[in-house]
Amino acid sequence: TGVNLAASYFAVQQFILKTSLAIGGGLAFFALAVVGYDAKVENPAQASLDGLAAVHTFGPMALFALSGLMMWFFPIN
After folding, report:
1. How far apart are CA 35 and CA 12, in angstroms?
2. Three-class SS of residue 41?
3. 32 and 52 Cβ atoms separated by less than 8 Å
4. Rounded to an integer, what is the distance from CA 59 to the centroid of its chain?
5. Please, how many CA atoms are within 13 Å of residue 68, restricted to the half-sphere of its CB?
6. In this structure, what is the dihedral angle of CA atoms 68, 22, 20, 57, given to the nearest 10 degrees?
7. Minimal CB count within 10 Å: which of 27, 28, 46, 62?
8. Phi and psi at residue 46, in whole multiples of 5°?
9. 25 with 32: CB under 8 angstroms?
């Protein structure tokens, strides 16, 4: 079209970035609540610490694997 849309693309990119950060934070805290982790407890149970480690490790790992699969099957042509 001959119209410079760089500012619009940047605005959409920043909106998606901030939205995903907000949703990701909310999902992380929800997952911690599901596994029973409470930051206010002075001596947390081992099960809640294991849940914290699992959320911290397996959540991002699953998302990285999903993005890797998407990149693997993306045609480069």
Report:
1. 34
2. coil
3. yes
4. 7
5. 6
6. 0
7. 46
8. -65, -35
9. no
